[in-house]
Write a structure and sequence with these properties.
Shape: globular
Structural class: alpha/beta
Bound molecules: nicotinamide-adenine-dinucleotide, magnesium ion
Number of strands: 11
CATH architecture of one domain: 3-Layer(aba) Sandwich
CATH superfamily of one domain: NAD(P)-binding Rossmann-like Domain
Strand order of the largest sheet: 4-3-2-1-5-6-7
Strand content: 5-15%
Order of helices and strands: EHEHEHEHEHEHEHEHHHEEEHHHHH
Largest sheet: 7 strands, parallel
CATH class of one domain: Alpha Beta
Length: about 400
């Protein structure tokens, strides 16, 4: 089997660390070419030593100095590249075969898009890239002959349940498919009394009952905006109209999503809530490789529950459905407003319930402006910046 040369974007994050864990189990077929991080530069240096990465990408000169300081003098250092442009250039290096896009937020879009443009195998964890630029991203994947493998557990599950000839990138729904059934745990506040939600803390919001993840996506899971982003992601990955995507709360997080076919069959993918399973699926595709995830004992599973989400409890999910129906401008605004609101919530500058209010205020404001649908990456980034400024102001007046 040919050795893959992998570039891990966001290697110090939760997905990045899990990716390196899987790669380390397959040294004969999976090789790290480049690593990137925005913070935790000492951790990046340790990762680069362990993987013998040839290149590392850091955000600025201060980070470069920290990396050099953390590097042991006795060892040969990797090539250090600096800045967002270097990130987008690195994924396109001829040596690179596969790119794990695991930067958090729309900040990950330019490099993920560059990987698609360079025709690489793209393992996409960074869902915000598709929310902000779904049409552009999918078109680029098709036109540049890239291979797109979804890593988000729900989309990876759906991908596994679809016939491979019609997986993604889809330009129309796979034949015979009636609906995509996207599961959600409901997060830590699934049954918290509504009048207590005003007072929940960032740590409570980040204490996910089943998954261990970065702080931004943990808050998104609590508000269920994460599931809204995933509905938009599924719409683009599988060319599925919004009416044919159903969200189901499944508190056990064992069924990672399902595909319902015209004949009444429902195919599901089950497993432990451990991201190494979808990551290993992407790294090994089309083969199955060891992920380090242990046995899953169905005999002790007990029960699997499913119910419809309460949009009153989870207004962010409603807003995401509305944004998808409204179009690309609204989706960019939804994501950008959320990134700002979640950041301010994590810094304890606004309350949990204000997250949804700020997103809604931004969507209303953007909806009232005559903004044409973005066509290029620059258009997307300009609208993203416009909404961030707006959301920051709303946060200030909410504080
Ligand atoms: P994280 O916060 O743990 O890690 C984010 C990584 O991105 C870090 O390496 C960080 O240094 C880097 N980064 C942050 N801002 C950056 C910037 N402006 N420029 C360049 N690099 C930057 O996040 P995570 O939980 O690993 O999530 C990463 C992505 O994967 C997100 O889009 C998330 O929605 C998606 N995802 C995560 C999980 C999960 O289990 N954690 C599951 C599904 C999807
Ligand atoms: Mg997910």
């Amino acid at each position: 089997m040919k050795v893959q040369q992998i570039c891990v974007l966001g290697s110090t994050g939760s997905i990045g660390e899990n990716t390196l864990d899987v790669i380390a189990r397959h040294r004969d077929t999976l090789n790290v070419y480049a690593l990137s991080a925005y913070s935790r530069i000492e951790r990046l240096a340790a990762q680069a030593q362990a993987t013998r990465a040839r290149v590392v990408v850091v955000p600025n000169e201060a980070a470069r100095a920290r990396f050099v300081q953390a590097w042991p003098a006795s060892q040969r250092a990797p090539e250090i590249r600096v800045g967002a442009t270097a990130l987008a250039e690195t994924v396109a290096d001829t040596e690179v075969t596969s790119v794990m896009a695991a930067i958090v937020g729309a900040a990950g879009l330019p490099a993920a898009l560059a990987a698609a443009q360079a025709g690489k195998r793209v393992l996409l964890a960074n869902k915000e890239a598709l929310v902000a630029a779904g049409e552009l991203f999918m078109r680029t994947v098709r036109e540049c002959g890239a291979e797109l493998l979804p890593i988000d557990s729900e989309h990876n599950a759906i991908f596994q349940c679809l016939p491979h000839s019609s997986g993604c990138p889809g330009s129309h729904p796979a034949p015979g498919v009636r609906r995509l059934l996207v599961t959600a745990s409901g997060g830590p506040f699934r049954s918290t009394p509504l009048d207590q939600l005003d007072h929940v803390t960032p740590d409570q919001a980040c204490a996910h009952p089943n998954w261990s993840m970065g702080r931004k996506i943990s808050v998104d899971s609590a508000t269920m905006l994460n599931k809204g982003l995933e509905v938009i992601e599924a719409h683009w990955l599988f060319a599925m109209p919004v009416e044919r995507i159903q969200v189901l709360i499944h508190p056990q997080s064992k069924v990672h999503s399902m595909v319902e076919y015209e004949d009444g069959s429902i195919l599901a993918q089950l497993g432990q809530p451990d991201m190494r399973t979808p990551i290993a699926y992407g790294l090994g595709f089309p083969d199955r490789i060891d992920s380090g995830v242990g046995l899953f004992d169905l005999a002790t599973l007990g029960r699997l529950d499913f119910e419809l989400p309460d949009l009153n409890r989870f207004p962010c999910l409603r807003l995401a459905f509305e944004a998808l129906r409204a179009g690309q401008v609204a989706c960019i605004a939804l994501n950008a407003a959320n990134e700002i609101a979640v950041d301010r919530f994590l810094k304890q500058q606004i309350s949990y319930t204000q997250i949804a209010r700020i997103i809604e205020a931004c969507l209303n404001r953007v909806g009232g402006q005559a903004i044409s649908s973005p066509e290029t990456l620059d258009d997307v980034l300009a609208l993203d910046a416009h909404t961030r400024a707006m959301a920051s102001e709303f946060c200030l007046s909410a504080a």
